[in-house]
Amino acid sequence: MNTLLAATAHRTPLTTDAQIEDRVLALIGTAGHRQLWLMFLDHDDDQLPVVIPLDDLPRVPDRAQTDVLVGHLAGVLHQVAAVQIVLVWERPGKGKLTELDQAWARSIAENCSRRGVRLRAQLLSHTRGVTILHPADYALTPTAASSTGGTEC
After folding, report:
1. Which residues are paired to 53 by β-bridges?
2. Out of 10-14, 126-130, 140-144, which region has the weakest mean confidence (pLDDT)?
3. Which of 3, 8, 57, 129 is the most exposed place for a label (fewest CB within 10 A)?
4. Do residues 41 and 47 lie in contact, with contact meaning Cβ atoms separated by under 8 Å?
């Protein structure tokens, strides 16, 4: 297993989805309990030394909640001099997205888009690993491009 050192992690840009998946697996790992992790990237795609867990989110998102959450995300982006955010949805279970996973990912993505918050990636940390989420994975109408469609991990 590779050891991720804080001294070098910030000098390794996260320019691909695979690099982001690897970093999330190294930092957060597989799921222990339900929570959301926030990671921040600078203008060079380097991860900033700030990782924030949030474990008090309601099970089902609503627009008012996501408005407040994304407003806070925008504020943190500004405070830490980040230009983009990576969100990791941690929850025990299989890697197949649930309807609630999709609802949260879709709600946050739509709200970030409305507010101009650059959402670099969303990932799912599940019991067996980490999976990057593509917009087709949480779209209201799944498409053939969906990477999780019908795959049971």
Report:
1. 37
2. 140-144
3. 3
4. yes
Q: Does residue 103 sit in helix, strand or coil?
A: helix
Confidence of residue 153 (pLDDT cuts 50, 70, 90): very low
Domain ranges of the chain: 12-138
Close Cβ partners of 61 (under 8 Å, ≥ 6 residues apart): 103, 104, 107, 108
Give the residue among 27, 32, 89 at the shortest CA–CA distance from 57.
89
DSSP state of 121: E
55 neighbors 34 (Cβ within 8 angstroms): yes
Q: 12-138: what fold?
A: Cytidine Deaminase; domain 2 (3.40.140)
In 3D, which of 66, 81, 31, 73 has the Cα closest to residue 52?
A: 73
